[in-house]
């Protein structure tokens, strides 16, 4: 369920890029930076909701809340197919961002809630890598669907523009996926319909070792303060901003970027699909290697190195080297491993339910800020080369690598410090402390 819904939400993001080469800008009268603001305004809605979505995820039944938001998102999605002006498109995009805000944080909470702490360097990291990798599947599927609509429109004219048909299709797909989640996704182990009463008790007992409980609806101010005082929190937020600026730009402009290499708009729909395969490969390999070694940050940074090399190719190769620049774009997709590695760290290593939801909220606020800025790095005046955007991507990938290295060194130091404190203090654990919603 996570894989399908996560893929659909990314498919919606890439659909804007497809629409940009299928007549969207001409049909609704976009000029100058209007298209870039359509990319950014989605995350203004996301950011607006992120201030309260962490609290709602804590207070409301987790599975049902995610499902209802998904269904509402699917209902609003087709409205974009009906827009006739820039102002109408802005309004729809904003509300889509509001409804989308619960999906990724909710998925991270559910993933952390059902797995064991000692699995984190193994299974949980791989799990998050798997459902995030469906961004890549979505890009492959979306490119083929968009090409099908575009090609069909050339052979037999549609009653509506092909980019409008894409959004109608996505809306129906999202509503169906939301309905499946509403029926099958439990709020926690205690109401998992696929388990017997005895197995539900065993499922709760299984996660005792995590010392994080299975969700706590009481807001604890001291845990919120602890989250804000933790340097790791701000390393995570900074990394998220630096890596989602390239994400926001590439997600909305990759079709136009491929056209700038010298390919036709229809070719760009097909030639964008291998980038999805690169992302799938990078995320799954990162998850498997992390599972074997336990070093999520190191292998997450490895994918970012691949992305950095791709950005260097984009910047350094001359305009006429279109195949080389296309390969460079494909390689940039390796950067996705960095954020998936850090997301798994936050979901698994942050004890205390209020602290976890606070850190996740800050994580996604950073995500929004970066994606708001990202489309603005692609300036109309720089077309068709978009050199300033390419240089920005290169620099931010390099900064992200430094941040991940500092994060790795900091966490190693903290682990050694806590181990020494436990050995020196000779502390005794109280029975049942695992479900007391503590942070230490």
Automatic annotation (TrEMBL):
GO molecular-function term, one example from the UniProt record: transmembrane transporter activity
Family matches, as Gene3D superfamilies: MFS general substrate transporter like domains
Keyword Membrane: yes
Keyword Thylakoid: no
GO terms under cellular component: membrane
Broad class of where this protein is predominantly found: membrane
Ranges in a coiled coil: none
Descriptive protein name: Putative transporter
Species, as recorded: Lachnellula subtilissima
């Amino acid at each position: 369920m996570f894989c399908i819904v996560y893929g659909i939400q990314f498919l919606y993001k890439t659909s804007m890029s497809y629409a940009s080469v299928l007549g969207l800008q001409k049909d609704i009268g976009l000029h100058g930076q209007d298209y870039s603001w359509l990319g950014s305004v989605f995350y203004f809605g996301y950011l607006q909701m992120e201030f309260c979505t962490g609290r709602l995820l804590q207070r409301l039944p987790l599975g049902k809340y995610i499902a209802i938001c998904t269904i509402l998102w699917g209902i609003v999605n087709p409205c974009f197919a009906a827009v006739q002006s820039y102002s109408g498109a802005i309004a729809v995009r904003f509300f889509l961002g509001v409804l989308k805000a619960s999906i990724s944080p909710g998925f991270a909470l559910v993933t952390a809630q059902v797995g064991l702490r000692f699995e984190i360097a193994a299974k949980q990291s791989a799990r998050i890598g798997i459902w995030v990798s469906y961004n890549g599947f979505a890009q492959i599927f979306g490119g083929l669907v968009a090409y099908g609509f575009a090609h069909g429109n050339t052979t037999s004219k549609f009653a509506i523009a092909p980019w409008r048909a894409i959004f109608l299709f996505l809306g129906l797909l999202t509503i169906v996926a939301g309905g499946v989640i509403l029926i099958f996704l439990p709020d926690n182990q205690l109401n998992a319909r696929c388990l017997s009463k005895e197995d539900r008790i065993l499922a709760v007992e299984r996660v005792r070792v995590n010392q994080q409980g299975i969700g706590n609806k009481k807001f604890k101010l001291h845990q919120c303060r602890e989250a804000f005082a933790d340097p790791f929190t701000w390393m995570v937020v900074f990394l998220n901003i630096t890596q989602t600026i390239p994400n926001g730009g590439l997600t909305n402009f990759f079709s136009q970027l491929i056209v700038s290499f010298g390919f036709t708009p229809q070719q760009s729909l097909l030639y964008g699909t291998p980038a999805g395969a690169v992302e799938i490969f990078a995320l799954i390999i990162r998850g498997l290697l992390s599972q074997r070694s336990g070093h999520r940050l190191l292998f997450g940074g490895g994918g970012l190195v691949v992305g950095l090399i791709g950005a260097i190719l984009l910047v350094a190769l001359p305009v006429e080297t279109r195949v080389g620049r296309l390969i460079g774009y494909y390689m940039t997709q390796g950067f996705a491993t960095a954020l998936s590695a850090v997301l798994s760290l936050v979901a698994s290593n942050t004890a205390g339910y209020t602290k976890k939801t606070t850190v996740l909220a800050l994580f996604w606020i950073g995500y929004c800020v970066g994606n708001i800025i990202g489309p603005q790095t692609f300036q109309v005046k720089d077309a068709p080369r978009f050199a300033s955007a390419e240089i920005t991507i290169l620099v931010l990938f390099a900064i992200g690598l430094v941040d991940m290295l500092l994060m790795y060194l900091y966490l190693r130091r903290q682990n050694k410090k806590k181990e020494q404190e436990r050995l020196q203090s000779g502390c005794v654990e109280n029975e049942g402390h695992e479900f007391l919603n503590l942070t230490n």
